[in-house]
Write a structure and sequence with these properties.
Elements (H helix, E strand, L loop, with lengths): L1 H13 L9 E8 L6 H24 L7 E9 L2 E8 L13 H18 L8 H9 L2 H8 L8 H18 L5 H13 L3 H14 L4 H13 L3 H15 L2 H13 L3 H15 L4 H24 L2 H4 L3
Antiparallel strand pairs: 1-3, 2-3
Helix pairs in contact: 2-3, 2-4, 3-7, 6-7, 7-8, 8-9, 9-10, 10-11, 11-12, 11-13, 12-13
Length: about 300
Amino acid sequence: MMKKLFFIIFFVLFFKYPLYGHTKVYSVSFPQEGNVDASLLIRNYKILTRYYAVLELKKEIKDFAYLAIDDINYEGFDGKHNFSVVINTEIFKENGAFLDDELIEILEILLQDWDSLSKLDVKSITGSLIKKYESELVIIDIIRSYDLHTKVGKAFIKSKLREIEKKVIVNLDEKDIKTILLLSYLYLKAGYGIKSEELLASALNNYPDSFILNNRYAVILKEMGKFDEAIREFESHIERFGNPLSLFYLGMTFKNKEDCIETVKKLNNFIKLAKDNYSNEKVIARNAINECQEGLKSKKKSLPKNKRRKK
């Protein structure tokens, strides 16, 4: 009941004023819960405020919603707990604003964690659990502070890598999947592909059944030009996990190998299985299919007529 009440209040407030602008401040509230430490309750509500804010913002600015919240402040208690949410979307309208799929994946896992928190009985929430959620906000801070939401170059990330690593190690659990994904992304972007590959290979010993880690490992192989190894990984994932994304990446790996026949076959299968999901990947897949089909037509036209008829 508490969750539903809060969501309705928040929804109205968000659409009462225009979303876009340099800075906007919105007020949101939660009901009081008895027999719960007040400071712990406020910290819990602050995280949930961010969760619902992201859900609403995603409708307008999609994946940049995670980064558009400048601050969340506790405004006191007047029979209910009141919070203000400071929104700033201006920086994401600048040229070069961009989020890699790898970062979006990490942020989506954060959102799933917040969703799990929203479903817990408030009385069962511990200080150590809240501390974990609070410390993981460093992921958002790192993305914003080091302009990872823009197309920053390899040299810049490489120059800041040790500094970022220190922040990660101090604030995050090194064995957590989000931490592993973030570090593997940074290593690859900084030009340390082998280090990224080794990190993921080691993590798979602890999480052998994680589709996310298995998929990221295969993607790293693809990005490093180890196409045959990547193909073997993606093909095994299709059997093990049945996730259409494996077909997408398999098709794109064949495209990297300039095998257009297999590219078209795999990506068409992906589009069929994806149905109404993976809209961004389907756009990429269709473009790749069109490019391959044009290439195959051009190749056929360049052949002597007597060879075109041969099967």
